[in-house]
Amino acid sequence: MGDGPTSAENLTGLLHAWRAGQVEAYDRLFTLIYPKLRTLAARCMGGKNPNDTLNATSLVHEAYLKISGSELAWVDRVHFFALSARVMRQILVDHARAHRREKRGGDAAKISIEDAVVISPAPEERLLNLDEALRNLAEIDPRKADIVELSYFGGLNQTEVAAALKISEPTVQRDLRMAKAWLYRALNQPDERL
User: Fold this and answer.
1) All residues at 6 or more sequence positions from 93 whose CB lies less than 8 Å from its CB, including other chains
2) What is the dihedral of CA 132, 135, 136, 138, to 10 degrees?
3) Could you count the other beta carbons within 10 Å of the beta carbon of residue 95?
4) pLDDT, tens digit, 9 for 90 and up, residues 123-138
């Protein structure tokens, strides 16, 4: 995550101070975490259309507002960034759903069935499909879904995922391999029962 032990401890201290109501901690905290949140937002957005109304900066600001207004308590910086990733993912999913609803209004281009087989889904559809697959995985195996979310949306490395979930790194590696295989199958063979 690019933070040394001192800055990680400082960040955790600032998070606790902010949660305790120290206003000056908020300003220092935002300065420290903004670059990481911006990187996290860009990662969460993946191949999102740059002409869209939601960009990485607005995603960071919306997520930060939701987190700062929530009653959730975080343990440390890893937990805070994991929570941030989850909030950003949910904002993106909500945005994709709203965008899909707008498209259903009649502006959608009409294509033949033959062309539909060749065209890949829009980024919003891919995100919604991934979200649905992750929700299905979470019903079957919540830990594997958490590992995927922390790794890919949260940008945590395997050591940080292991610490956040209080499991060993080999367990993270094994579960991540299994989760990726399960998600690949769910996304590419949706009609099969998993």
Assistant:
1) 127, 128, 131
2) 160
3) 20
4) 677 778 888 999 999 9
